[in-house]
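Supplementary Methods. Inverse-folding protocol.

Structures were first reduced to a discrete structure-token string of length 246. This string, shown here, constituted the complete conditioning input.
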């Protein structure tokens, strides 16, 4: 009997019509589909494929043992997440003895995707073929939602996780022409304060659930005090371009 494989499918920024043709085909024919989710939640990736999966599909929710309950640099956090990924490495490998398994991932799997932690373990073990299907990153959908080009000419674009401490965030904000700040959520107030310090608040936009049915786009200066985790702050570059484009 031929051994199956693991295919991680990048789902794109949220709008199902922005998935690749290949992603759509794989999803509709899959019989085994795994996805990450927080305990007690449906899972963002699973929500994105609602109505697309085969009637005979078997689903495997991979529930994180914890998310924000303790700091990510706490040894307990590191140990529990490591055990979680090792457990699912073993379980997915066992499933592929006779079947292909599709793993869902929002955006692009290799850009801050949770699957990366499984990927490196699966590749190191070398027991099962692993493929990763690229997807349009969520940030791309978000900067298109603003209707403004993100970079011009020689603009330098920095992509920053909002979870960084103030000092490195401030440093990257200062030396970059255009910014994408991901993982905003509870860090929104801090990000707004730092952009104000840099004189960039008036250039900043907040996009919530970019490209999805409940998308919200607003200037960061007019945004509420809180926003969901799946929110992105955009600061557009203003670089070199012909005079008529100014």
């Amino acid at each position: 009997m031929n051994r199956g494989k693991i295919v991680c499918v990048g789902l794109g920024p949220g709008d199902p019509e922005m998935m690749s043709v290949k992603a759509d085909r794989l999803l509709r024919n899959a019989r085994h589909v795994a996805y990450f989710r927080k305990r007690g939640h449906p899972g963002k990736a699973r929500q994105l494929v609602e109505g697309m999966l085969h009637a005979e599909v078997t689903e495997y929710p991979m529930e994180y043992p914890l998310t924000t309950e303790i700091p990510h640099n706490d040894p307990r956090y590191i140990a529990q997440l490591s055990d979680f990924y090792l457990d699912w490495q073993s379980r997915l490998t066992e499933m592929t003895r006779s079947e292909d398994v599709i793993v869902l991932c929002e955006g692009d799997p290799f850009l801050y995707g949770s699957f990366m932690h499984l990927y490196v373990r699966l590749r190191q073990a070398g027991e099962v073929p692993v493929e990763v299907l690229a997807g349009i990153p969520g940030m791309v959908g978000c900067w298109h939602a603003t209707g403004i080009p993100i970079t011009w000419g020689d603009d330098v674009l920095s992509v920053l996780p909002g979870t960084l401490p103030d000092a490195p965030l401030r440093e990257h904000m200062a030396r970059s022409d255009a910014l994408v700040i991901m993982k905003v959520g509870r860090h929104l107030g801090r990000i707004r304060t730092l952009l104000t310090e840099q004189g960039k608040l008036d250039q900043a936009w907040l996009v919530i659930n970019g490209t999805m049915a409940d998308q919200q786009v607003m200037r960061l200066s007019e945004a509420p005090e809180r926003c969901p985790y799946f929110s992105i702050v955009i600061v557009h570059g203003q670089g070199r371009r012909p005079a008529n484009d100014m």
